């Protein structure tokens, strides 16, 4: 376990956060006393209004929040991978090199090839990133994350820039990869349905802490047209201040 701040006793949880405060300016804290535990192998989605601090929390977990000041204890596993909305591939390196960069061990390339095959990109090892579509680039980013066998995968709007159809395909892929590798996952998303399709537990961040927590216990492939799915969606929309979807409609009309 790696501890970013303060001291905590050893834990079997993948993530343990207590009393996390983060701010960028003196007047308004972004995170104020946030507590969160994620179990090993648990898939958690994080929703919240724009500016509620979702990325700030994810960056704190990734140890990438040098811009922020704050206090609190964070415990994460040794092996953490992060995926962002943009693939962040090195344009001057071919696909396979992007996947294995920094990876140690004699069989790094073989592992990289295997990871590319897992995301459906076998045969594209020697392509340049610019030759791939946005969805394919995100597949490479997933391969690069998973080849490191992370105990924790942090994903910040990983499908946010993709079209609706590609997004749906990527949901299936991410869920399949998750089932195979079973890292703990924290997925930041704006998309309520994406959260319900993918996660075991959905959190809503509001006013600096986790306000709402909803376990998703729908069996089998999750179908957005299922009334039980709709029930969860309504609850989460209400937690986001969008009860019944009425305010969404209003926003669309405006
Ligand atoms: N590097 C920074 N410097 C100054 N303020 C920042 C910085 N990063 C984030 N903030 C501020 O912190 C608040 C939370 O930002 P954050 O990006 O965590 O929100 P978010 O919930 O991820 O938003 P979105 O859904 O729009 O991506 C915002 O008010 C933002 O302006």
Automatic annotation (TrEMBL):
Domain ABC transporter as annotated: residue spans: 15-232
Question: Carries keyword Ligase?
Answer: no
| Nucleotide-binding is among the record's keywords | yes
Q: What Pfam families is this protein classified in?
A: ABC_tran
Annotated InterPro entries: AAA+_ATPase, ABC_transporter-like_ATP-bd, ABC_transporter-like_CS, ABC_transporter_ATP-bind, P-loop_NTPase
One GO MF term? ATP binding
Assigned keywords, A-Z: ATP-binding, Cell membrane, Membrane, Nucleotide-binding, Translocase, Transport
Q: What is this protein called?
A: Aliphatic sulfonates import ATP-binding protein SsuB
Can you name the source organism? Glycomyces algeriensis
Q: Which gene encodes it?
A: ssuB
């Amino acid at each position: 376990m790696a501890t970013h701040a303060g001291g905590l006793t050893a834990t079997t949880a993948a993530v343990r956060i207590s009393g996390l405060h983060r701010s960028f300016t003196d007047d308004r804290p972004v995170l104020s006393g946030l507590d969160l535990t994620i179990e090993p192998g648990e898939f958690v989605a994080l929703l919240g209004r724009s500016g509620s601090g979702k990325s700030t929390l994810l960056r704190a977990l990734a140890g990438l929040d040098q811009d922020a000041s704050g206090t609190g204890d964070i415990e994460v596993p040794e092996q953490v991978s992060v995926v962002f909305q943009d693939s962040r591939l090195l344009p001057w390196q071919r696909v396979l090199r992007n996947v294995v960069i920094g990876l140690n061990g004699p069989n790094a390339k073989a592992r990289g090839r295997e990871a590319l095959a897992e995301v459906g990109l076998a045969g594209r090892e020697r392509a340049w990133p610019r030759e791939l579509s946005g969805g394919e680039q995100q597949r490479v980013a997933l391969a690069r994350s998973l080849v490191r066998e992370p105990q924790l995968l942090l994903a910040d709007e990983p499908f946010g820039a993709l079209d609706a159809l590609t997004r749906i395909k990527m949901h299936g892929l991410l869920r399949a990869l998750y089932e195979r590798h079973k890292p703990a996952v924290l997925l930041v998303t704006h998309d309520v349905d994406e959260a319900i399709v993918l996660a075991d537990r959905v959190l809503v961040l509001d006013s600096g802490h986790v306000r709402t927590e909803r376990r998703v216990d729908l069996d089998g492939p999750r179908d957005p047209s299922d009334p039980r799915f709709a029930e969860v969606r309504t609850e989460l929309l209400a937690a986001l201040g969008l009860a019944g979807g009425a305010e969404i409609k209003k926003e669309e009309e405006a």
